[in-house]
Amino acid sequence: MKQIAIVICNYNYERFITEAIDSALAQDYPGTRVIVIDDGSTDGSRALIEQYGTRISTVFKQNGGQVSAYNLGVEIADTDYVLFLDSDDVLYPTAVSEVMHAFEQENNLAKVQFRLDVIDEAGKQTGAYVPHTKPPADCGRLLKEGWLYPSPPASGNAYSVSALKAVFPVPEGGINRYGADFYAIYGAALMGEVATIARSLGAYRVHHTTAPSVSFANSEQIKKAPKAFRERWVTLRDIAKKRLNLELPPAFYDFAHEKAYFGSSLYHAPLGERWRWMLNDSRAYRHAIMANPFWGPKKKVGTLFLSSLCLLPYSPLSDFVVRYITNPLARRSAVEL
C-alpha cells in the first residue's frame, strides 16, 4: 500500500489546531501519516500538539513563515504522496482514500485536487464551496502559456512528493514568508497532470465572514495579493528555468488575480472613478474573462454583464456586484435573498 503524509503547518492557531489534527487522524485510509510542523507559535499550540503523543510526528521549529514550513515538510516527507492541511481547515474522513484512488487510476498524476466547503470561524457551513471551475488534466500546458488554472486553496490539494521535490525548496523570506501553496499548486502542474474530484472532501475556514466584504482569502489583504502573485510568478519562472529547463512567459493571466484589482478599485468608489477604471484600466480584467480557457461562453457573458452594472449610478448595486464577483460568500447570500 502506498503511503501519504498529511502535513499540518501551524502558527498561532491554537483555537483550530486540534480540529485539524483530529480530522487528519480520522482518515479511513490505513496508509496515512500525520505530521505537524509548528512554525514557532507563541500561543498555546505546542501544549495542544504534544497531547497527541506518538499518534502524530511533530516538529517544533523557529518561526520562518509558511514557505519555510513547506520546505521542511517536503524535505521530511518519506511517503509517496503528501497533502498540506492548513491548521484552520479540516478534512472529511474519506478525503485521503478518494485522493489515493485517483492517484491509483493514473500513473502520471502530479496532483489531485478536490472541492472544499466554506465554513465560518465557528466551523458552521456557509453553503459556499471552492473552486467552481474544473480545469483540464493537462493544465500544465496552459500554465506554460501563462494561465493559472482554477485550484482550491492549500488544503484541497494532494501531491506526488517527487513532483514537489522538483520544485522545492523555494527561496524563503520577503514576500515568500507566505503563499507556499502558490508554488506547490502551480509548480506541481509543470511536472505532470492534475486530476480533479468534483465533490467536497474537506472544509476551508474563512475568518470574519459576517460583514460584507470583497476579501475572501485569510492570509493576504485584497490590495496586497496582486503584488504578491506577480512576485511569486517571477520566482516560479526562475525555478522552472533553472531546475526544470522550462521557460514560462513573463506575464501570467488569472481571473482571481484580476478580480482583486477589480474589487479594490471599484468597491465604494464614486461613479466617475468606476467609469474611469472601466474605460482605462480594465483591459487585463476583461482579457482574463474573454480569453479564459477554463470558462464557457455563458460564464464569460454573465461575468461581463455583471461587471457592466458597476457603471450604473446606483452605488449600492455597484458594491453588491463587486462583492458578488469577488467573494463566493456574497453569492450564497444573494441566493438566500
List the helices and strands and how they pair.
Blueprint: E1 4-10, H1 17-25, E2 32-39, H2 45-50, E3 57-61, H3 66-76, E4 81-86, E5 90-91, H4 95-105, E6 109-119, E7 125-130, H5 139-143, E8 157-160, H6 161-165, H7 180-189, E9 193-205, H8 225-243, H9 255-266, H10 271-280, H11 283-290, H12 297-308, H13 315-326, H14 328-336
Helix pairs in contact: 7-8, 9-11, 9-13, 13-14
Give a structural overview.
- The protein is an alpha/beta fold and 337 residues long.
- The protein has 2 domains: 4-210, Alpha-Beta Complex (Spore Coat Polysaccharide Biosynthesis Protein SpsA, Chain A); 255-336, no CATH class.
- The protein contains 14 helices and 9 strands.
- The protein has helices spanning 17-25, 45-50, 66-76, 95-105, 139-143, 161-165, 180-189, 225-243, 255-266, 271-280, 283-290, 297-308, 315-326, 328-336, and strands spanning 4-10, 32-39, 57-61, 81-86, 90-91, 109-119, 125-130, 157-160, 193-205.
- Strands 1, 2, 3, 4, 5, 6, 7, 8 and 9 form a 9-stranded mixed sheet that branches.
- The protein is globular.
The CATH C-level name of the largest domain is: Alpha Beta
Q: Approximately how much helix is present in the residues?
A: 40-55%
Question: How many beta-strand runs?
Answer: 9
Order of secondary-structure elements: EHEHEHEEHEEHEHHEHHHHHHH
Count of structural domains? 2
State the CATH architecture of the largest domain: Alpha-Beta Complex
> Looking at this structure, what is the CATH superfamily of the largest domain?
Spore Coat Polysaccharide Biosynthesis Protein SpsA, Chain A
CATH domain fold name of the largest domain:
Spore Coat Polysaccharide Biosynthesis Protein SpsA, Chain A
Quickly count the helices: 14
Estimate what percentage of residues fall within beta strands.
Answer: 15-25%
Mean pLDDT: 93
Distance between the termini: 49 Å
Described by the principal axes of the CA atoms, the overall outline is globular
What kind of sheet is the major sheet?
A: 9 strands, mixed
- The radius of gyration over CA amounts to 20 Å
